[in-house]
Design a protein that fits this description.
By secondary structure, the chain is mainly α. 79% of the residues lie in helices and 1% in strands. A hairpin with a 2-residue loop joins strand 1 and strand 2. The protein is globular, with a radius of gyration of 32 Å. Its main location: membrane.
Length: 379
């Protein structure tokens, strides 16, 4: 059999190769597959992986919505653990850790009870004066609306109050039903708080051992990656939680001092509302200060209300440009647009609870992804 071209009458013939005898073969594309389709195949592979991730996320969302109470309780327990961990570690240097956890929990409960009593005392002391202040403030507001530059029709605010009272009276049954539903929610909240406190005690006492035990149940070949991811997740979550509480506390103190200086009643309860609302990034603090401005408008008049509105802008700038970068910049590396979108999506899917947990969940997910990516690049 010839191994090369053969001359015959000036013409040459190509050699035919037989793969069975070890000769060089010519490769032909498989039937139905076009050359250069590697990019399309990679895109298709990534697309179905994204679909699997989206399906898993949707299934997780359905599961969380079914088990909302225990999930929220565990989240609150993690928040409490992140706040109590520094004092527990400090006390554990001088006493058994169980005693340190007990003292830290009791101290936190006493602090919360004291703040609740303070708010109740202030509300009770100012309740008698509040009615007269509200009526006087509404009269001043109505007089201001009737004057320049608005020149509203006389009695507009009085008519609005009467219509609001008639609306509440006509929907009395719905109001009572909402009140009973709220009472049921309070019972659920109390049960969730008890579960969260129970979990927080054990997490603060032996959280690392619980993590090591859970990590040991999974395959050992990926244990180091899970350990790194877990450390990054907890470091980010704890830093975010402590920083958020510090920022919320600072905002509450500033709001309380300014409202007290301006003579707005219920300054302490409004400062407490600011603290709770500031736990929802970007949107919580302006909402609480808007409530404070309405109280100032009803009790002290439009000038004081405008001053409180100016306070909204000032505290928002202080929080966004000074406190957040200074306190939480090392723990959370998220763009403000990502934070705003996370709050919007969380609020759409889960209401107030979803808006509150969206940013820490996104921060933890990003920290885990960054840790695993950096580990692979280093390896």
């Amino acid at each position: 059999m010839p191994l090369g071209p053969r001359a015959s009458g000036g013409r040459s013939y190509a050699t035919r190769s037989y793969p069975a005898r070890g000769y060089a073969t010519r490769s032909y594309p498989a039937r139905g597959v076009r050359a250069g389709s590697g990019g399309l195949e990679r895109a298709a592979g990534r697309a179905w992986r994204l679909l699997v991730v989206a399906a898993a996320g949707y299934a997780g969302y359905l599961l969380v919505s079914r088990l909302l109470l225990p999930v929220v309780a565990v989240f609150v327990a993690l928040v409490v653990t992140a706040v109590l961990r520094p004092p527990v570690d400090l006390l554990a240097r001088r006493m058994p850790r169980a005693v340190a956890v007990l003292l830290a929990v009791l101290g936190a409960l006493v602090l919360l009870a004291g703040l609740g009593v303070l708010v109740a005392v202030v509300v009770r002391a100012q309740a008698g004066q509040l009615g007269g202040q509200v009526r006087g403030g509404m009269d001043r507001l109505e007089h201001w609306l009737e004057g320049p530059p608005l020149h509203a029709r006389p009695g507009t605010l009085t008519d609005l109050r009467h219509r609001l009272a008639d609306l509440v009276g006509s929907h009395r049954q719905a109001v009572l039903s909402t009140a009973f539903t709220g009472a049921g929610r309070l019972v659920e909240a109390a049960a969730g708080a008890a579960l969260a406190l129970f979990c927080a005690v054990f997490l603060a006492h032996s959280g690392e051992r619980m993590w090591d035990w859970a990590n040991g149940l999974l395959p050992a070949r990926t244990a180091s990656r899970r350990h790194r991811a877990g450390r990054a997740a907890w470091r980010t979550f704890a830093g975010y939680t402590r920083g958020l509480f510090l920022v919320a506390g600072t905002n509450a103190v500033l709001v309380g001092v300014v409202l007290a200086v301006l003579g707005v009643p219920l300054a302490v309860p409004l400062a407490g509302l600011e603290f709770v609302a500031a736990l929802v990034p970007l949107v919580g603090s302006p909402i609480a200060l808007a409530v404070a401005s309405l109280v100032a408008l009803a009790t002290r008049g439009p000038v004081t209300a405008l001053l409180v509105l100016a306070l909204i802008v000032l505290i928002g700038q202080l929080e966004g440009h000074v406190l957040h970068p200074l306190v939480m910049g090392w723990a959370v590396r998220l763009h403000p647009v990502a934070v705003a979108l996370a709050v919007a999506v969380g609020g759409t899917l889960g209401g107030i609870v979803g808006a509150a947990v969206a940013v820490p969940v996104l921060s933890v997910g990003w920290a885990v992804f960054r840790e695993l990516r950096d580990g692979e690049e280093a390896g």
